[in-house]
Design goal:
With about 400 residues, this protein is of the alpha/beta class. The protein folds into two domains: about 180 residues, 3-Layer(aba) Sandwich (Rossmann fold), CATH 3.40.50; about 190 residues, Rossmann fold, CATH 3.40.50. The chain is built from 13 helices and 14 strands. The strands form three sheets. It has an eight-stranded mixed beta sheet, with helices on both faces. It has a four-stranded parallel beta sheet with strand order 12-11-13-14, sandwiched between helices. The protein has a two-stranded antiparallel sheet with strand order 5-6. Strand 7, helix 5 and strand 8 form a beta-alpha-beta unit. The longest helix has about 30 residues. It is elongated and about 80 Å long. Bound molecules: ligand SAJ. The site of ligand SAJ has 19 residues, from helix 8.
Length: about 400
Amino acid sequence: MENKPSVVMMGLGYIGLPTAALIASRGLKVTGVDIRQGVVDTINKGQIHIVEPDLEGLVHKVVKDKNLYASTKPVSSDVYLVAVPTPFKGDHEPDLSYVMSAIKSIIPTLKKGALVILESTSPVGTTKKMEQFIYKERPELKGHIFLAYCPERVLPGNILNELKHNDRAIGGVDEISTKKAINFYKHFVVGTLHPTNAKTAEMVKLVENASRDNQIAFANELSIICDKAEINVWDMIALANKHPRVHILNPGTGVGGHCIAVDPWFIVSEFPKESPLIKKSRETNNYKTNWVLEKIKNEALAFKVNKSKDPVIACMGLAFKPDIDDLRESPALFVTESLEKQGFKVLPVEPNLSENKDRKLTSYNDAVNQADIIVYLVAHNEFNNLEIDSKKIVLDFCGVLKK
Ligand code: SAJ
């Protein structure tokens, strides 16, 4: 392995900060760059601005040891990593403005021999575009710097562990770039580092999340079919999964978060004719959320007709998946908000949050006692085995009752 290179990490969010801290913990000097002054100040105090197990302790240590320093501006360095967001804009078109502005800001600091690695989820061909952009501004660097794409694939809630142990696909714009990038990741990854080209690595990332989206869509479609057929979908899936080659995932309120609900669109927007299945999966998972909302509203209206009063509805869970506090793109939050906006009496419950700026939260015990209709939207551990009056209406959209 080479001597320890200096590193710039562009973007100190959910991926950039843990990665920067892990690299710094291996004794490499890392400058973490973020455009948000508040984030930079927090990190330089040894604190963090996101929720992730074990991260605060690690950041505290590497900042104290002077291996991680945060700044709003990049410095000249041996290796540059880019881990900034790639949201979509308009009709599901990828928005590369964060990636391009990160590249723009490192261009003046690049010196011959530098290695630039893009980690942000990106449409196929982005690494090539990044290369062309750099050479347009600094033609004298042509043939003297190295560029690669290496997607992250870590699961929020287990990031530090997965960063270290997961295998990675690493694709350079040429073979020497791939080799240089692999040598760099050896400093902190113990998983296998698989060489490929940039285009393939870009597609691998998109396909991983599109694959999971597709599998969840299958489960969600089954849940709608089984509802109509009056079959318990959880029992049915459990039995189907006894087949040695069948592994059906869990239906739920829909697909949330900032990855699986976004990345498949990057394939669809670039290959619209070739991707009907990928598109349909996205639509199926989005439809499931609206289907859940309609089910709850119908139940509430039936209650009103039968009892001549408005029901109180407990919305159990707001996060985008079980046992986290992250509300980004959350289907459960969408359902709760829609009910609130449409004038239903709602008790929002989120045991992983102590407060929410937009609504007053209710504890799960109070909610199940006070509500007429209890709706499970997220299968948080806290909801297992709650004692609920058998006269109350319970709607389970995420399999809490099967546990
Ligand atoms: N979900 C279901 N049923 C399931 C599994 C998940 O409805 O059986 C829902 C969840 O409730 C959630 C959504 O899908 O709303 C996504 O959750 P997730 O746990 O599947 O994935 P994320 O978004 O937290 O992380 C994904 C991971 N990708 C894959 O598993 C292929 C992770 O490895 C990626 O690094 C991450 O996206 C990313 O950053 O791209």
